[in-house]
Q: What sequence folds into this?
């Protein structure tokens, strides 16, 4: 059975992710206590189910400790299990809760002895939730939804759901440093040292997937040297990441605006590694019609 577990910080998009999987034909369950997971899988198997998506969060925090062991047992039983952990910067979460006017799930669950007063603030709830979920963050593929539109998150979740079981998937992501480094990055490369096509008025409205920008950067000796160094680094250490039983390795490449140099480098890296690895590509700052590769 293909099983996808969605967890993470409240307000980071778990409902969006679960809706995407439901639309894709997954049998979906929200807020399942982790201790019931294996029982639910057994029931679905008896019913002939082939797919299952489950959302878990801090509302069931007391039973999250046993989740890693349950996941490993499900894998040993032959199930294809993926864990997606959604997170976001605290300021982004505060904005989302303010816009929806909903209270944080922990606002009525934190004991008075865990905070300085009887009424926990939203920030205190978020920090406490990060602490409660820290043990399971490392067992899944982390997606930083800060600044992501709902449509882009839906696209990324769908992409992950369609990924076949492989030892490791290489995910290359371009981003703008001015909007912050992605929280889900495992490796980060800075390509701001390269000449910036932005200052050429004919190249400014284009992006790193367009032929004129590619030609501009191909002509830069520094770009070729930096690309070879990044390729060499990833190639050297990729076997070690694979031996660490990772499902995903996210390589984030950033420039100032996330439009030209980083996009170009991500495309070049992806083209090189597609010959031997399962590769996914994200361009965080590009509009959806340009973000797919």
A:
């Amino acid at each position: 059975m293909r099983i996808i577990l969605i967890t993470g910080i409240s307000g980071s998009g778990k409902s969006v992710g679960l809706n995407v999987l439901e639309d894709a034909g997954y049998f979906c369950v929200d807020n399942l206590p982790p201790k019931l997971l294996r029982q639910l899988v057994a029931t679905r198997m008896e019913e002939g189910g082939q797919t299952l998506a489950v959302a878990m969060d801090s509302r069931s925090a007391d039973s999250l400790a046993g989740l890693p062991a349950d996941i490993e047992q499900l894998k040993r039983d032959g199930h294809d299990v993926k864990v997606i952990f959604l997170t976001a910067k605290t300021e982004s979460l505060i904005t989302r809760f303010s816009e929806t006017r909903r209270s944080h799930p922990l606002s009525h669950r934190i004991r008075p002895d865990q905070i300085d007063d009887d009424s926990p603030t939203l920030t205190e709830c978020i920090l406490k939730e990060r602490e409660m979920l820290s043990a399971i963050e490392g067992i899944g593929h982390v997606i930083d939804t800060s600044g992501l539109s709902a449509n882009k998150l839906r696209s990324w979740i769908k992409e992950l759901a369609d990924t076949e079981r492989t030892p490791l998937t290489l995910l290359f992501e371009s981003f703008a440093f001015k909007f912050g480094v992605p929280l889900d990055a495992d490796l980060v490369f800075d390509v701001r040292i390269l000449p910036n096509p932005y200052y050429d008025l004919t190249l400014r409205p284009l992006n790193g997937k367009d032929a004129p920008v590619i030609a501009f950067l191909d002509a830069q000796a520094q770009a070729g040297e930096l690309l070879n160094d990044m390729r060499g680094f990833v190639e050297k250490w990729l076997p070690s990441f694979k031996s660490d039983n990772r499902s995903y390795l996210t390589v984030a490449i950033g420039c100032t605006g996330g439009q030209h140099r980083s996009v170009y480098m991500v495309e070049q890296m992806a083209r090189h590694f597609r010959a031997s690895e399962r590769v996914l590509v994200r361009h965080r700052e590009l509009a959806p019609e340009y973000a797919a590769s």
Q: What stands out?
A: The first helix runs from residue 14 to 23.
